[in-house]
Specification:
alpha/beta; 4-stranded mixed beta sheet; 444 residues; 5-stranded mixed beta sheet
């Protein structure tokens, strides 16, 4: 009886393994078999935070382990602590982690510290990196804008976002208005719709004092010619005339929003728009599912989207996101097994599964996939918005300046910007004061 039981168990395991690889294309089977031969029984540890990327990869990991024999442990760390944890483990040279989830905001700090390795040698290794991985299919805005630092590839993008404008199609049609093409158009339309109907306002954006205000301001700053820091010399440009002008524009735009807009994070801005209180909304593409979900949005069937409007300096867009990289402290065999994990999870072959399991698209082929476009009709507009984000990258400018002190800078300018919104000082006065504080921060 016992022998029969073990025979049944053995057959089930064989069937499971056969089933797992049954539908693989020959080129994928060939790679999987090679990885299994080399790394079967190896265990790698992933340092991730709670995120849709994490959820999607955890849903895909059993198949990966069945096919390759590589076991995967997960250390899920709260997002705010992940950065500190990775720096501490690297400083102590513990070698406890192999695969790292890397926020693009932190690359400027990780790179000089040597937390993650350069991935170019892995990408150029034709045995470890098969053609079906297709690195070039990842959108250039993400490849160059969030996965690289000073032209070194530290991460493979797995989640990203830009920002675009959502608008109420019903209101625009009712009053004979067209979606904005320029920054001036957007401000004029926000003024037009404010008070046009009872409890209706023109715009919803994040504007809470500090980081959120600064983040909202960055959404329009570059198209208006402003910058906070020169990204080549790190000269402080906070009170530069074009930066001041961009703040004046942003404050004017916010004044067309609800009276409590000064406390809005992305959540309150989203709520104001999806509840029908504003004609327009300018925020992250990653929030789109909530806007078009009829269970969460009162305007889901009346909304349209357009790429960021052009300004006098150009047509630019925001860019942020996450990568997966490899710890520099990982042993050599584990590094290669970690790369196999990355190839499987982020390669073109599994990209559709990844997105359907909740992952964020980062590949051009996914944004153009007919089935997925039917499931999310905003993909073409998101793709066009990402092209505008790439315009900034091509000019050598990162939407979030890659300097370890930048978040402190953003907190300062966002606090002073909020003072302008409430009318306690002019944009020029505020930025002159902020200039002094930011210069001290950069000099420390």
């Amino acid at each position: 009886m016992r022998r029969l039981t073990w025979l049944i168990v053995g057959l089930c395991v064989l069937l499971l393994v056969s089933w797992a690889g049954a539908d693989l294309p020959p080129e994928v089977t060939s790679w999987v078999n090679m990885i299994k031969e080399k790394y079967d029984g190896t265990t790698i540890t992933c340092a991730f935070c709670p995120h849709p990327t994490t959820d999607a990869m955890q849903a895909m990991v059993d198949e990966f382990t069945e096919l390759t024999g590589i076991k995967v442990r997960w250390d899920i760390i709260e997002e705010g602590y992940l950065r500190q944890k990775l720096l501490l483990e690297h400083e102590a040279k513990t070698g406890v982690y192999d695969v790292l989830l890397i926020d693009a905001f932190n690359l400027a700090e990780y790179a000089p510290s040597g937390v993650a390795v350069d991935l170019k040698p892995f990408l150029e290794n034709k045995e470890l990196t098969p053609e079906w991985f297709d690195y070039q299919d990842i959108l250039p805005a993400y490849r160059e804008g969030i996965g690289m630092y000073q032209e070194i590839i530290y991460g493979i993008p797995v989640a990203g976002e830009t920002r675009y404008v959502g608008y109420r199609k019903d209101l625009f049609e009712k009053y004979g208005q067209r979606p904005p093409e320029t920054m001036d158009d957007m401000l004029n339309l926000a003024k037009f719709f404010k008070g046009k109907e009872e409890s209706l306002y023109g715009m919803a954006m994040r504007a809470q004092k500090g980081i959120h205000f600064g983040s909202g301001w960055l959404t329009v700053m570059y198209s208006l010619g402003g910058q906070l820091l020169d990204q080549k010399t790190w000269e402080v440009l906070v009170n530069n005339p074009k930066t001041v002008t961009s703040l004046e524009y942003f404050v004017d735009l916010l004044k067309q929003g609800p009276p409590d807009i000064g406390v809005y994070t992305h959540e309150e801005a989203l709520s104001a728009f999806t509840s029908g209180r504003t004609a327009m909304w300018f925020d992250a593409t990653a929030l789109t599912p909530w806007v078009i979900d009829p269970t969460k949005s009162m305007i889901s069937d009346r909304v349209g989207f357009i790429p960021p409007p052009a300004g006098p300096a150009g047509a630019y867009g925001a860019l942020a996101g996450w990568n997966v990289g490899i710890s520099s402290d990982s042993p050599e065999k584990e590094k290669e097994a970690a790369w196999a994990f990355i190839v499987w999870m982020t390669g073109k072959y599994k990209a559709k599964d990844y997105v359907r399991l909740g992952g964020t698209p980062v590949r051009e082929s996914i944004y153009q996939d007919e089935e997925l476009v039917k499931e999310n009709w905003t993909f073409p507009v998101q793709l066009a918005s990402l092209e505008r984000a790439y315009n900034l990258v091509k000019e050598g400018i990162s939407w979030i300046p890659p300097h370890p002190k930048f978040m402190k800078v953003l907190e300062v300018v966002g606090s002073y910007g909020s003072d302008v919104l409430v009318g306690s000082m002019s944009a020029r006065e505020a930025m002159d004061k902020a200039q002094v504080e930011v210069e001290k921060i950069m000099a420390e």
